[in-house]
Protein 1
Amino acid sequence: MKPMLAWIKAHLLVVISTLVVVIVLPVGYVFSSKWNESIKTKRAAEVKADVDKLAQKVSYAIPALDPSETAVTQSDLPNAVRTEFFKKHRESVLQQADGVVARAVAFNQRDHRPLVEGLFPDAKGEALQTLPFELADRLIGKDGRPSAYQDLLDRVRAGGPRPADKLAPILHDVSTREREAILGQNANRQLSPEESARITEKVVSRRVGEYQARAREITFYAGMDVFAVDNARGMSLLRVKPKMLPVLEDCFGWQADFWMFSDVLQAVAAANTDSGGRPQSVDQGAVKRVVRVLLKDTPYARVERPQTTTEDSSSAAPVAANPNAEIKPDFDRSITGRWSGPENGMYDLRHASVELVVDSAMIPRLFDAFAQTNFMTITDIDLGEVDSWSELERGYYYGDAPVVKATIEVEAVWLRSWMQPWMPKEIRSRLGIPEEKPAEGEAAPAGDAQKEDDK
């Protein structure tokens, strides 16, 4: 035993190294096995995650422009060819949608522009003191210049019957010539009943002929007296130049009413065109006479609110509407499902009641004409009899076709996208239209800056 211990002491380094090798090898094997397993598990998880990503499906979609159609959708593994295909067609559809929107706005706006440039939306200084009166002069007429309403009637080839002051001399001349032809040199004798009847027949025939000639000169009967506004709500039709300076809200209400009257008369004129778009005369067209166009609401006119000592929440401006929000039909509000209000940031509705004398067989053409002129829908129609002989005595010649009196209710949609830039601030606030804020780093409009300074 002693020799062994002596040898160990003499070779202690060798013994310790041998023991280390004997102990470390199995321990290292155990630890390396566990470490290797950990690395394999981690790498396997990473590979699985990458594989899952590669196998993850994506959704492809091409929206539908028509709500009645179903959008094209597909869920599948990513694919460069498929991705490029859907991207190309989606961009094409979105471009078409932008084009449809632009065409819809252009169709709705038509040729509507303010009658007086620089007045809307916020004339200031000298312009604010003069341009409102200039608008009134355009609507009423001044210094021999016809009113904008008369210009509108002329554009659609509308007019009244042959004026009595022009017809009377013609009929007197006919009567005189016939009397002279019958009496000859014996001018003092009395006419016989038969001779008087013959002169009367000639005069009546010429009178009807003048009425017929007038009917061929115009497209339909209408005069300045056809324009009317229900003044139970808002402003009435401007007839006399105001003595006090009109506010911008009133001016915009007058302008908007003029646009609405224009749309209605343009639709009536469209009903009196042939297949080639050429205007027809009264005796040929669908509409013979416009008796009255009554605007039943004025959503853009100023609203007077009673003065209160305490703050009334009902008079506060409505919450700004989202112009991009979906406007769902509500058939409890109207037969068309369309409605306007603070929650509708896309469009406003206008309503008019139009009294017409129309060819009973051509009423469908009238419906089509309103739809083709603008976003207008005839929501109701009431028909009544017309005494054609009584109308003829007043100078209205309607031709040989049977006619009826039609009272139609018209609903018009006006997109805010083209009207909003001209709306005064007070109207935008009342309708819930959000204020346009300047972009970051962009200065606020001068008017707003001035108001801040005033504060």
Note: Confidence is low (pLDDT under 50) at residues 308-315, 438-455.
Protein 2
Amino acid sequence: MSKSIPLVLNTMFRPFVVELQRRGVAHKAIMRASGIDADGLLEGEFHLPVVAWYDFAEKCAEATNDPFFGFKVGFDAALPTLANFELVDLSRGSLGDLLSALILDARRVISAANYTIINDGQWVKVVAERVFKPAKDPAQIDAFYAAYMMNAFRIYSGKRWDPKQLTVWVCDVSAVPVSDLDGVNILPGDDTGADFRFPSSWMLQSAEEIVARARWAENQRNKRFIVDFQTLISTQLDNPNLTVSGVAASMSISASTLQRRLGVHGTSFSRLVKEARVEAAKEMMKKGDLTIANIGKRAGFETASGFAKAFRDHTGMTPREFRSSI
């Protein structure tokens, strides 16, 4: 009987794409180099071969010339929005709840590893074991996983947090900025997955910590929502027929919920889409290798007049005036 191919949920690519875009690096070419069809990647939920995710993360580090790319993505990712933790209310959960959620939901998100929690009353150890041997060390993904788990330990241990009491094993220590971690013990492991050890007392929590965490989680969700929305539409700007219902479906929410949440942030679907199209057009103009008419079409504007009006409303200049000012 042939073994099944280890898979990962497509949404786990999202924080990497966000960071690439923040740095002005095009993600589609990197994805294609990893054998991934970039079109529709962030729409809905589906699985991809986990080796493609590993390769994509390594190529992100190469493209940005940043050996700590995966770590930075993991540390900056908003925990309540990561696919791994969707089964638990993190605003009220303890560190134990979070780790249980990781194990319960792991097979849905990624089928490449099994996780075990060992608690002897003094120390807790979280052990990851890959179900296959990767062709090369997945340094960036291990660093990504290590970073967001470190962030979780820091947040959920509350006043008990002491970086010197956390030990982390990763396959490639050079992918982790050890000198910036305030004494966290980073040790070389193997290619089976990143492991962690910390005091059992971190699993406890107080009522005060529960209230503080509820506020933190809500702030994290609000902060991440707009970023995720902008990331999603940025991959579809060449489609002039973007609709509220279509984008909402891609985000697994209703159109009314999308409009309401954008309203809370003082903006709207049409406004953000137009702004994103104009920003994309500005970047294309800076490269100088396309006509203004072609740029307008590539940015998703159906007519030249619509492009000119939106550009002028957003920048105070016509497209030609902007190009002349560069």
Note: Residues 67 and 174 are 7 Å apart (CA to CA).
